[in-house]
């Protein structure tokens, strides 16, 4: 996902859904910007490592017309996006991998971040954005586009770092009118999502686990 809210007093960093993000509060000379999400749970649109199994859910019915290829459990192996990390600098390319998604046939889904780390570079210095937590969201899709309708619940918190060390902590926020639309292709065990307008691209692979429906 890729919505990018900009709270008063601190600019926002965009991270795509690819369900995606939040706002990062900066320190000293350059002010770190807030990061929204990217991807399904993000908004504006990603963590390597084992994730705890979600609480078993009761069987759900499939929402009319939803492509069954999207339904199931996925892990990102490539996340690329452009983030406005500093208020006084252009957007910077960031990359990472490791988010996990569970898409259910009733049009609900969950994104899991566990030390999901995005890295970039500014004037020769490494930048890092680290996310932890989970996000609940709603979705719909055609055969070519997926729409992330709303972020209904989230515990995600983002930490930002540059050459000075830790420079900000920003919690992700619920957003009822997310309405992010991304282009996608889904074939078997691979899902590719992108949004050219935001410079976002994410590649997922299907994994086994709770929530695997197709």
From TrEMBL:
Segments for region (Disordered): 41-62
Domain of life: Bacteria
Protein name: DUF5640 domain-containing protein
Lineage: Bacteria, Bacillati, Actinomycetota, Actinomycetes, Pseudonocardiales
